[in-house]
Amino acid sequence: MLDKKNFPVLRNNPRLIYLDSASTTLKPDLVIAAEAEFLTKNGANPHTDAFENALLASEMIESTRKTIANFIGVENVQEIVFTTGATMSINQITHGLKHLIQPGDEILVTDLEHAANLLPWIVLAKETGALIKTLSLNPQTMGIDLFKLKRSITDKTKIVTFAHATNTIGYLNDVGLISLEIKQINPNVIICVDAAQSIGHTEVKIDQWAIDFLAFSAHKIYGPFGIGVLWGKMKLLKQMPPLIYGGGMSSYIAEDYSGYELTAVPHKFEAGTPNLSAIQSFQKAVQWVSEIGMNKIQTYEQELKTYAIAQINKLNLAKKITFYNLNNHAPILTFNVNGWNAQDVANYLDVKHNIAVRTGEHCARLTGKMFAKNSIRASFGIYTTKSDIDLLLNALTKEDEFLDVFFT
Ligand code: PMP
């Protein structure tokens, strides 16, 4: 869809076949330039109007906040909190909700959550006496089972948390439908959505969903590292204590140290010097993706998956390779070559063909409960081409070469 020449990593490594976009998307020139632009043309710490660059830095943060709010369908811009990424966003949510959780309250999670959307909830449950329960996945699609969902929600359900799309199978959950069903059964349930995997591949429109929290990272949508978003309903954000305390988030500290007052949401969650250059390039990434059009990106990536499936059938690969997600259009191919260790296959792909894929549990530590403990994941972005897919699939047909890597 987009020429690889727009992406310096690919331009500088013309032989690299990068199939690890679910881990992080490569950044186009204009995103990198936006990051450098802040450092070379502004460079100031915000939170003062004492001089122009500081004022401009503060304005840039708020203008990025607006861009993000608009992008994900949030009306109240102040509900957008900058964090270091999805991981911190979810940790802020669990920390912030602690005082609302009673022993015996139930927190529902799926078995394909990334550790970032699992561990913080387990810790919260341990700290509060809440119980973690399974939100069942449909064994075929590995998306949330809509029939079982109804039975899982009870008066005791306090929180339901799940990925919009998982980072292993990629099934796109219908958040609108799921959130409505949950709220119809128990309107008090707090719904948290991990959009880390979906944000760069499909539209996220919070105003069409009945959810309370959303988390994602900029680096999964062609943006920079070290910056992400926590969106929450203002009513809940106001009640939540920050995870981190420091500069820029207090309006008063008593001289005898006996008390303090915090600034309003979102700034009370943004202690310390912000990652300004990343915030600037995050805005550029989102503006750029919006210009291309999320629907166009999704259609293109679906075409890639359709092509991959057709080639897999043509090459009769299912005989030797177990694929786990050929029944969806997610930009991810997850598989194992029968009889081969996933890591060995990945090393072969890397060393012999310059193909970068990821192996293991992909930080979703319970994949063994659903499909396989270890697997190989090839994931696409807007720079992925049909030729990349051909190279991967052809390399996988050469089983006799898999071991060469270890003897050369
Ligand atoms: N959730 C999912 C589904 C993910 O794929 C990831 C990143 N691999 C995360 C959360 C965590 O994102 P980050 O490491 O950027 O905080």
UniProtKB/TrEMBL annotation:
Family: Belongs to the class-V pyridoxal-phosphate-dependent aminotransferase family. Csd subfamily.
Protein's name in the database: cysteine desulfurase
Top-level enzyme category: transferase
Keyword match Metal-binding: no
Cofactor: pyridoxal 5'-phosphate
Record keywords: Pyridoxal phosphate
Reactions catalysed according to its record: (sulfur carrier)-H + L-cysteine = (sulfur carrier)-SH + L-alanine
Occurrences of domain Aminotransferase class V (ranges): 17-392
Domain of life: Bacteria
EC number: 2.8.1.7
Pfam families, alphabetized: Aminotran_5
GO molecular function term, any single one: cysteine desulfurase activity
